[in-house]
Fold Nicotianamine synthase.
Amino acid sequence: MGCQQDPLVQRVCELYEKISSLESLEPCNDVNMLFTQLVLTCMPPNYPIDVTKLCRKVQEMRSNLIKLCGEAEGLLESHYSSILASYDNPIDHLHIFPYFTNYLKLSQLEFTILSQHHLGREPSRVAFVGSGPLPLSSVVLASNHLTKTHFHNYDIDPSANSKALQLVSPDPDLSKRMVFHTTDIMDVTCALRDYDVIFLAALVGMEKEQKIRVIEHLAKYMANGSILMLRSAHGARGFLYPVVEASDLRGFQVLSVFHPTDEVVNSVIIARKCSALNHEKGSPLGPIMMPNKCCEIHQVFNPLNHGSIVEELTIEEKSS
């Protein structure tokens, strides 16, 4: 059976045609309905599909669909950021965002993963790349989990940072611990060494080649031993977000890959910047770190009491 005859792929193609024919992706009943249907279609966690190996026509559709999803997500966040800014204390009303619960669960997941690999100490400085107009990940992590950490949020869009700043400015705590930088992360070099942990948003680099260039840039300038946490997608959820494989993380030691099986859409990859001692001779980015053993464990992720697939990776250096 060809990939276009797969019932899930057929349904995604049908929804893509409808979404791509919309005059605008601004939040409204039609837009919300179509994207809700798309997300529900792609959510089955164990559907046997590798979206990166589908036929060329479907791959082109998927690439376009991810861009449409990114545009719609940005417009939705911008819309709710403006609404929240009308409150005296916007942070107290984050629950009005329809996917706020998902961010709570994703942030709890990321914090738990980070705690397992960061020697139990709270990072001093964290960067979030691709924070957007509604920086919920940074806000939730700073408010609920990393309560002493300073967050540096990077976004290329000045209007996104302006909206985000309006949300945290009235908060006496977050306003002191959150900074917003309007710049392309590819133009940031030495400053990247100042962060203990860098989070890379799912929609920074929507094409695979762009994503890899960003990862290589981070590998070049991050401090040795610092942590990279990035969001990916697994299975049919790869129609919604770019897929990052462990082998794409050149210059990093991949520690674990988590694939949630509940309503949290994004997978989470945690990796450590390789020490200069491990770099290949003549390579500024270091070796490709490949999994020596990969076991998928279906389990209940205790902090959230939701299912996940956990890939614990034992890493060995690829022989040169």
In short: The mean pLDDT is 86. Residues 3-96 form one domain.
